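Entry type: protein chain
Record version: 2
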Amino acid sequence: MENGEENIRKMFKIKRLEKPKLNNTILIEGLPGMGNVGKIAVDFMIESIKAKKFIEIKSNSFPNSVFVNEQNLIELPKIELFYKNVKNQSFVFLGGDVQPMDENGCYNFCEEILNLFEEMDGKEVITIGGIGLPNIPENPKIFTTGNDKDIVKKYKTKHITNNIYGVVGPIVGVSGLLLGLSKERNIPAVSLLAETFSHPSYLGLKGAKKIIETLSNMFKLNVDTSDLDGEIEEISSEEKNISKELKKFIPKLPVNSESGTSYIG
């Protein structure tokens, strides 16, 4: 058992830039996925509230590629953790440009994140993702599900429904596994999922904005989403024509037979 845990530890290079004092910590995850809803939401919140990076993670379970940065030099893919203390509550944001490539790597990565989270006085996990639709939603609905009835009830509002059974298939990737593995550790965990267009190049800005506003209001984060409005307006003016063209070339996404929706991480 110890050898197994040691091998898992070797999969991840964890660089601690700072050891902040964290209390009552809530983890908010948003990695690349359907419509990049989670990534957009978390990246925007990090920048808006000036959250500070304190951990970098690299791993051989991440994609076998490098990125070219603004200095025209290469970087290995990494996932980062940022923190922000608001009164007596700490928020840790999990963001990055990649997810682990396979099932084994994803399980090990999520276990490692939860190990770190438990060291941070971790109390609650929130994951953010997208529900893929065959058409562009004009007014995306937000759904919630989780590993505990009480936490789902907490996030259910008049704008967010928990009537999700039969609407989506499996929640794939880090956004899904963090919920399941948190349950094994008795950590309440919830997912916020926004409807979005299923094409890989589409950005689910409208859904991301709704989720940002929900979390900002709930936790009094004072996130100003006005910067997203211009981008949403620009995309909205073009997306009808774009979607018509895209449908000529993209294969049809497998969907839930009852609802016509699907979820892919």
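Comment: The first strand starts at residue 12 and ends at 16.
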